Amino acid sequence: MKLSTGLLFCLLLLGADGQSWWSFVREAGQGTRDMWRAYSDMREANYKNSDKYFHARGNYDAAQRGPGGVWAARVISDAREGIQSLLGHGAEDTRADQFANEWGRSGKDPNHFRPAGLPSKY
C-alpha cells in the first residue's frame, strides 16, 4: 500500500505519464546506487580533505542519470546534512558540503574538489 501511494504521489507531483514515470523511478534507483558508491569509496579511501570531492562526485554521477537521479541525490544529500546538523556538526561544514553537492548535481566537474594525491582509483 505504501509503495503504491508513493508511486501515485510521484506521478501526481511530476505530472509524469506512462513511460516517463518508470524512467524516473529507474533513474532514482541508479542515482541512489551512485550515491552509495561515492560514500563507499570515500570510506575506503579514508583520505584527508577528500569529503567535498566525494560529495560532488556522488551528486554528479547521480544527476547524469536524469531527473530521477537528481531527485535521489537531492533527497539523500539533504537527509545526510540534516542528520549531521542534528548531531552537532558545524553549520559551516554543512554549507560547504551542500555547496559541493549542488556543484555536482548541476553537472560541474567534481574534480574541482579533488585533493592532490588522491589515488586515481577514485
Automatic annotation (TrEMBL):
GO cellular component: a single term: high-density lipoprotein particle
Membrane-spanning parts: none
Signal peptide: 1-18
Pfam families, per database record: SAA
Keywords of this entry: Acute phase, HDL, Signal
InterPro entries hit by this protein: Serum_amyloid_A (IPR000096), Synovial_Prolif_Regulator (IPR052464)
Stretches for region Disordered: 98-122
Superkingdom field: Eukaryota
A GO biological process held by the record: acute-phase response
Recorded family membership: Belongs to the SAA family.
Role description: Major acute phase reactant. Apolipoprotein of the HDL complex.
Record-given protein name: Serum amyloid A protein
Organism: Chinchilla lanigera (Long-tailed chinchilla)
Gene: LOC102015506
